[in-house]
Specification:
Helices cover about 45% and strands about 10% of the residues. It contains 16 helices and 14 strands. The protein has helices at about 40, 50-55, 75-90, 100-105, 110-130, 160-175, 200-220, 245-255, 265-270, 275-285, 315-325, 345-375, 375-385, 390-395, 400-410, 420-430; strands spanning about 10-15, 25, 30-35, 35, 45, 95-100, 135-140, 180-185, 190, 225-230, 240, 260-265, 290-295, 335. It has an 8-stranded parallel beta barrel, surrounded by 5 helices. A two-stranded parallel ribbon has the order 1-2. A two-stranded antiparallel sheet has the order 3-4. Helix 11 links the parallel strand 13 (about 290-295) and strand 14. The longest helix has 28 residues, at about 345-375. The two termini are about 40 Å apart.
Amino acid sequence: MTDFFKDIPEIAYEGPDSTNEFAYRHYNPAEMLNGKSMEDHLRFAIAYWHSFAWPGGDPFGGQTFERPWFGDTMDLARLKADVAFEMFRILGQPFYCWHDADVRPEGATLAESRSRMEEMTDYLGQKQEAQGTRLLWGTANLFTNRRFMAGAATNPDPDVFAYSAGIVKYCMDATQKLGGENYVLWGGREGYETLLNTDLKRERAHAGRFLQMVVEYKHKIGFKGAILVEPKPQEPSKHQYDYDVATVYGFLKEFGLEGEVKMNIEQGHAILAGHSFEHELAMAASLGIFGSIDMNRNDYQSGWDTDQFPNNLPEVALAYYEVIKAGGFTTGGTNFDAKLRRQSLDPVDLILAHAGAFDVCARGYKAAAAMLADGALEAARAQRYAGWDSAEAQAMLGQGLDEIAARVEAEGIEPEPRSGRQERLENLVNRFT
């Protein structure tokens, strides 16, 4: 036990009428829905990096948070873990996620960083066993250190590629040892600033081979979890090779990995790519590569990735609508890749930000489940495309342009536009949210 969260009670479900700030009003982990508990449907996870490693800086200002574990020693890394698991206990969520750089101090060499990661893996394993919190996924930080300023797998220096491979290897080993259910790759700097100094074709080829190596190593060590890629269009790199779900799918097809790799999709990244969250989720599901989500939001008055806690119920409901349609989570879950505002200094802010996000997600998930059970939205969609269910329409897809054109002229076909009824469907969604 530490005293960082001193006097903060465990958060328990009290129902929608509760006025207790330290209670869940909508998230009841034991509530059953369609044969599963809400805990199992939502599979909440806390991001180690934003909650415990981020110092509160922004592009125009440095550290605002003062945390007793900030520093580069193993003792402080263990203190950070103690505080993290205390927070997990208070919130009662089942999972967490990390980058290696979040849980261990950087070593002077790759071997020293690996040794420190192995030591912290043992320590985290003891914490998991004692408390029951599990690892949703691990990942490698291949973007913060200056060695990665020109990328990791896409770096023009082969030594950086090799160093990155070493980091990913020990991160995958740690993830497996801790029972992680996924391993994630986010290419924070796998892109370029200008074509003036970039061999784009070579960089993409190296990125593809690196991902193949990850999959090969997964099978070599017998890792049973999923390999996930997290798309992002830009920031920090100007042009990133993993722009969005569709782009990543084309990349996976090119390198023969579409059957091996799925997506970890973040709301904020979807917005930066010019999409909605539900678009990216539906696209991944349609391509058979849906895996997991990072739940946050962006400030729509800002052009960058602000990673705020979710509080927009209609957006969250539409996202979970697509998650449920995709069959729900298997190895994936709802990770809160979200951080406090840099003026939110108090320990209690960290607790209540997550508690409020849990409630918003629970309300959104239940609204989504209710919309699907109601069936009106799916019925309206089916009605709009009903013409394609006819034998004649299906046969047309096997014909040529000349044959189709001849039929249109012979039968005098003149299409009449039909309303898309968008506003009526938006009203339908609003009934549930």
